[in-house]
Amino acid sequence: MTRIEDVPTSTMKAFPHVFDDPQSIPKSVDPFTITAASGFMPTILPATTLPEVFAPLSSIMDRLPVRKADGTPGLLATYELGDVVHAELPDLTDEIDKIVTPDGKPDLYTLTAIFRDYSFLASSYLLEPCWKSWNTNPDQGYGLGRDRLPHSIAGPMYKSAQILDLPPFLSYAASYALFNYALADTSKGYDYSNLRLIRGFEHGLDPDSSEAGFILTHVYMVKETGSLVDGVVRILNAVEQGADRATVNDAYRTILAGMTKIEECMEDMWKNSKPGDYISFRVFIFGITSQSMFPNGVVYEGIEDNQPLNFRGESGANDSIVSLSSYQLKMILANLFLTLPLIDPTTGSSLPDSHA
């Protein structure tokens, strides 16, 4: 008997890997390629280490958080990150084009990990003065961030972002959340207690911290999105093929089951992340557009003729869950502050190509 997913449709042509085993997708393909098994998650676990040539970057990243993995103060705790970047980080821009798979294609999987670390470093570097201001004199607010990003950060981040077709700034999927988790024990799967962050700004490397809880709860939700993708694709295929109503209804039940699980995961947010702690680690996920800390944008040294650039900050509103559901169900979103990222046509630019 022919399965509906085996019959060519316009949806299957647009998303040829949607019913593939995620593990079979090569690293030269976008790691956020959508499948019914992985949903909007990466097709394989994010890389936790970088190629050896990027060891200077990894060294700084390991020392960067306010509280390091071993519990001792890091560079952001002592406000020394900027000086360390200037003293220790070489310009590795030319190494980006060398990150290829054995068949010579760009290794998008590894490049995403490199982009993640550089974008974490960029936000930390630019916002370190704001973090210091917030901690030493909170009455004066965040103050001003740094308005120039050294080419040792800007160059590799910009080049990898071009290859990945992403804005060169911290993003929800490719940096902050969905490519920033690991499993403490791979045999235990995606149980929440088994999730860990790869990179953090404040106390995120402690799995019990509010920063970790905030990010990992998003990961915990998105791990259930395979059901949404599966259901939506089956509905589109069924309609195109003229299948019976029962087939469509069954696909909607799959979507409902997935959304129910996502809601259950989301309900744990304030158990995993204390609301009062958010304002602290929030400092590092501001963007560099329409923010008082960056009134003139930021110059990426040696990039785009040194003209000031502006990019949105990281936001869970960039997640594709609501966007997919609202398009599928033809929901009209209210024009509110919290829904602006969902209806802003530029939002898709910060998503992986396969999600936009």
Main attributes?
single chain; 356 residues; 41% helix; heme binding; metal ion binding; metal-binding
Walkthrough of the structure:
- With about 350 residues, the protein is mostly helical.
- It has a domain at about 5-185 and about 280-325 and about 330-350.
- It has 14 helices and four strands.
- A two-stranded parallel sheet has the order 1-4. Strands 2-3 form a two-stranded antiparallel ribbon.
- GO terms for molecular function: heme binding; indoleamine 2,3-dioxygenase activity; metal ion binding.
Element string (H = helix, E = strand) = HHHHHEHHEEHHHHHEHH
The oligomeric state of the chains shown is single chain
Total helical segments: 14
Structural class: mainly alpha
List unreliable stretches of 5+ residues. Answer: none
Rounded to an integer in angstroms, the radius of gyration calculated over CA atoms is 21 Å
End-to-end CA span = 34 Å
Strand content: under 5%
Mean pLDDT, rounded to whole units? Answer: 92
Main sheet strand line-up: 1-4
Bin the helical content.
40-55%
Morphology call: globular
> How many strands?
4
Major sheet description: 2 strands, parallel
What's the gist of this structure?
The protein is mainly α. Helix content is 41%, strand content 3%.
Q: How are the SSEs ordered, and which strands pair?
A:
Blueprint: H1 10-14, H2 55-63, H3 75-78, H4 81-88, H5 108-136, E1 148-149, H6 151-164, H7 172-176, E2 181-183, E3 195-197, H8 210-222, H9 226-241, H10 245-266, H11 269-272, H12 278-281, E4 299-300, H13 320-329, H14 340-343
Parallel strand pairs: 1-4
Antiparallel strand pairs: 2-3
